[in-house]
Amino acid sequence: MLSIKGVSKHFGGLKALKNVSFDIADGRVHGIIGPNGSGKTTMFNCITGLLEVTSGNIYLDDVEITGKKAHEISNLGIRRTFQQGKLVPSLTVVENVMSGIFDYGRNDIADTFFRVPLKESKKESVLKDKAMEILELLDLEKSADRWAYDLVWAERQFVQIARAVVSKPKMLLLDEPASGMGPIETDQVGELIKKIKSMGISPVVVSHDMKMLMNVAEMVTVLNFGDNIFEGTPAEVQKDPRVLEAYLGTE
Ligand SMILES: Nc1ncnc2c1ncn2[C@@H]1O[C@H](COP(=O)(O)OP(=O)(O)OP(=O)(O)O)[C@@H](O)[C@H]1O
Ligand SMILES: [Mg+2]
């Protein structure tokens, strides 16, 4: 379980997160919603160690992870995807996924990795088998040998997810996995999230796509201007007046 306790993140005078607390339980899909700029990505950045919190504490299974480096947190079992869909364009799909066994989404590391000889204990064929296994599971195996630069936007998002899943993390943070996608691809994202959960990985999903999110999430946290304004099941969230106001007030 991930516990966020009183986390604040300030950028100068801007309070992107204000004393936010909530828990994310294992074994279910947790959604995070909120209008633009409400602090969702900042929360992911704080959890994964890409940003230092201004105050507050974050625990993974009672181990404090606040202040740990991004690679340490990644090694403890929290992986993520990025809103902008980062992949190494000059590597193939399967190579991008292989890089996920080590890295945590940093392209410079993946790039270096394929330019140095692999250690004996981590033979390329073993890595490739692992990556192919994940690609098959996610129905992406046909694209294994395509260049990442050749992929369309939605495919890039799917491969990004495969790269994050390949190390079998405890928790996978997905930042807008369906952004820029049409309804069919968005449904596929929803199915993918369920599949990830069935692999024993707990997905945490930030999405503007309410239909998809309400369909997959079992618990939802609502952020607004850096405040945690509500927490509940999708059914509860959809009829809460504070949530409706947060959305209507900004549109
Ligand atoms: N590195 C940064 N430096 C300064 N301000 C930042 C930084 N990152 C985020 N912010 C600001 O913090 C606030 C929250 O941003 P954040 O990206 O977390 O929102 P979000 O909920 O993910 O929004 P969106 O739905 O548009 O992705 C915004 O006002 C944003 O401009
Ligand atoms: Mg964001």
Verbal overview:
This protein is α/β, with parallel strands linked by helices and 251 residues long. The chain has two domains: 160 residues, P-loop containing nucleotide triphosphate hydrolases (Rossmann fold, 3-Layer(aba) Sandwich); 82 residues, 3-Layer(aba) Sandwich (Rossmann fold), CATH 3.40.50.300. It has ten helices and ten strands. A six-stranded mixed sheet has the order 6-7-8-3-9-10, sandwiched between helices. The chain has a four-stranded antiparallel sheet with strand order 2-1-4-5, covered by helices on one side. Helix 7 links the parallel strand 7 and strand 8. Bound molecules: adenosine-5'-triphosphate and magnesium ion. The site of magnesium ion has 3 residues, from helix 1.
State the CATH architecture of the largest domain: 3-Layer(aba) Sandwich
Bound ligands: adenosine-5'-triphosphate, magnesium ion
pLDDT under 50 segments (min length 5)? 104-108
Helix content: 25-40%
Number of structurally distinct domains: 2
Main β sheet profile: 6 strands, mixed
Report how far apart the termini are.
34 Å
Assembly state of the chains shown: single chain
Q: What structural class do helix, strand and pairing data support?
A: alpha/beta
Q: Provide the CATH topology of the largest domain.
A: Rossmann fold
Overall shape: it is: globular
The count of helical stretches stands at 10
Run of helices and strands: EEEHEEHEHHHHEHEHEEHH
In CATH, the homologous superfamily of the largest domain goes by the name: P-loop containing nucleotide triphosphate hydrolases
Under the CATH scheme, which class of the largest domain? Alpha Beta
Give the strand order of the largest sheet, numbering strands 1, 2, ... along the chain.
Answer: 6-7-8-3-9-10
Number of strands: 10
Radius of gyration: 18 Å
Please, what is the average pLDDT? 89
Strand % is 15-25%
